[in-house]
Amino acid sequence: SRLLGSALAPAPTAAAAPAASSRFRLTGVVAPQHPGDQGLALISVDGSPPRVYRVGAALDGELMLREVSLRTATVAPAGNSNDPGASFVLALPPLS
Q1: What values do phi and psi take at 42, rounded to 5?
Q2: How far is CA 4 from CA 1, 9, 10, 53, in A?
Q3: Is the pLDDT of residue 80 over 70?
C-alpha cells in the first residue's frame, strides 16, 4: 500500500491531562490596601459556586492561595515549595 501512496496512520496519542488552572475560576478579589495586609479572592473550583478564600487558605488538596493583587490571584502548592513552575495565576476577565 505504501507504493500506491497510502501513508501510515499516525499512532494514537494519549490525551493530555487538563492543566490544574483549568479547574479554577476567579470571580472577584479584595486586594490588600497596605503592605502586609491579606487579600481575599472569590474562586470557583470545578464549576462549584464561588467561595471566599483568604491568602494562605487551602483551595483544593495541596494547593493554596498564595497572593492576591488588583485583578489576579496566585495559586501555589501548599508548604514551602518555591517552584515557579508549580504555581499559576488566575485573572479576572477583562472589563468591557
Answers
A1: -100, 110
A2: 5, 15, 18, 63
A3: no
12/6 Cα distance (integer angstroms): 18
Q: Alpha-carbon distance 79 to 64, whole Å? A: 9
Residue 17's pLDDT is what?
Answer: 44
What pTM, to 2 d.p., does this model score?
Answer: 0.72
Distances (CA, A) of 56 to 14, 26, 39, 51: 35, 16, 10, 14
Count of CB atoms within 10 A of residue 57's CB? 15
Strand partners, 65: 75
